[in-house]
Fold Amino acid transporter transmembrane domain-containing protein.
Amino acid sequence: MGSQGTEPVLQSFLLVEKSKMKEIPRNLRKPSNILEKGEVAHLNGIDYFDPFLERSLEHPTTNGETLTHLLKACLGTGILAMPLAFQCSGLITGIFGTVFVSLVCTYCSYLLVKCAHTLYRRTKVSYMSYADVTEVAFANGPQWSRKFSSLTRQSVLWLLFVTYFGTCSVYTVIIASNFEQLFTHHMGYELNLRYFISILLIPLILLSYVPNLKYLAPVSMVANLLMAAGLGITFYYTLCDVPNISKRPAVGTLETFPTYFCLTVFAMEAIGVVMPLENNMKTPRDFLGLFGVLNIGMGGVTIVYIMLGFFGYLKYGETTKSSITLNLPTEDIAAQVAKICISLAVFCTYGLQFFVCLEITWTKVQKNFEKATVYHNYILRTVLVSLSVAIAVAVPTIGPFIGLIGAFCFSLLGIIMPVLIEFTTYWDNITVWMIVRNAVLIAVGLMALIFGTINSITDIITVYEPNATQTVNSTMNSTLIHSTTQ
């Protein structure tokens, strides 16, 4: 989830690597030399370091802007699959299950940021990326973990890049597929999906030129408004002529519950944007807390997920499709508007997902080429966007493959790794409660890994078997949740 313009703003990914991150475990990084900040470093004879006072950003984001980005990251296209998820779980089980999954995803994000705040003070730095937090936690953890610090760092980076770069490719297919449907309906003939994907190249390149996260906030706001409009119209259809609740099962079957679990976990997971958002906040302490940005954002997202899943399945029952928009009557103008709004919202979301890939790649470029300039930064943006679109053009059925990657990456990044980071960060103060709680979380992560991988492999086999009858559009919609991070 980029260093943009003259001064990096999205400094979270690998930022400390630019300052020789590997020195941090040995406390070789020096605090700021600014006099006013240095004056508070010694209070009552005790060394004191406030990472948030030391943090200096050219374009810090406000709490509202951070909340906007968080909502956009979580309210991705995965929400459209929630009615199908409720079909697999049943109405009542779906409600409680979604609350549970939300608590797991939110708590793991909380663990990551909480450990980061602790490590800021220990290492006297003011911000870290996800990869930085992982490396420092393992490097300063118990003896067994220290030899894995570099490996875990590189693993997190590759998992983030592969997942979000793949997501960018899938987003282009999702956007193109919706516009292809509308084109076919109004023009009366079909064009190859690859034409629509290719048309997106220039607009996506221009979107990628937004210099930093501060200036991307209005884009995320527009995306939220478009998604809200699209979902509002969708809710209108789901709330008309709603059947009696007794006509739908309250509890699903054990055979279909794994599908529900995978759909919900990968729809709500947004671990990749957590550290970028926290790193760029004007008041980073406000990210956590009972009424912090994280809890408020995830609480609102959970309510919307439950409502759409519940009423979508209640309305359409066993005819519920992989994306709720597929149940809307295409001939209705309102339904067409909903598809356009949601497609444009996904387009705007592309920028937020792209920043993850950009920052990881740009930091590597800066590390190896010291003379890299802003000009080279924009060349890199152009190349990355072109590659993501080229992959989508070459393989429009990329969704199931990215679903497999997402199942593997998000279960590790979103659930299992934050738990391991907490163990290594507080290894000298582990309690029984911590062991029990984190054992449950690891079990949930393993379930997401196993079930998600199985479902994705099944999707791949279904798409490429000789007698497969699915079109590219239905294939992409059936795998929306596997390929989004929001």
The first strand starts at residue 42 and ends at 43. The chain is about 65% helix and 0% strand.
